[in-house]
Write a structure and sequence with these properties.
It is a single chain. The protein is an all-alpha fold. The chain has a single domain (about 5-84), classed as ACP-like (Non-ribosomal Peptide Synthetase Peptidyl Carrier Protein, Chain A), CATH 1.10.1200.10. Helix content is about 55%, strand content about 0%. It is built from three helices and no strands. The protein has helices at about 5-20, 40-55, 70-84. The longest helix has 16 residues, at about 5-20. The model has no long low-confidence stretch (mean pLDDT about 90).
């Protein structure tokens, strides 16, 4: 899966789970401060990521994923590990 596809799918996922305007989701927008995601929504997003991309997100990764860029990097890494 190409990076552009991951970005598009992740943005779509955020819009569905958080009900946020897609234009607010920029590469460096902080999920908690800029988009208003709380810890419960973060868990929902994590579950949605795992289902949509068919990967596992480790619990210790969740607090480190706070922007679109970080999420895309984590998804890319998990997909590479899965396909290795």
């Amino acid at each position: 899966m190409k990076k552009e596809e991951i970005v598009k799918e992740f943005k779509k996922l955020l819009v569905e789970v958080v009900d946020v305007d897609e234009n607010k989701i920029t590469g460096d927008a902080h999920f908690f401060k800029d988009i208003g995601i709380d810890s419960l929504k973060a868990i929902e997003i994590t579950v949605a990521i795992e289902r949509r991309f068919k990967i596992n997100v480790r619990d210790e990764q969740i607090p480190q994923i706070t922007t679109l860029n970080q999420a895309v990097s984590a998804i890319e890494k998990a997909l590479q590990e899965k396909n290795a």
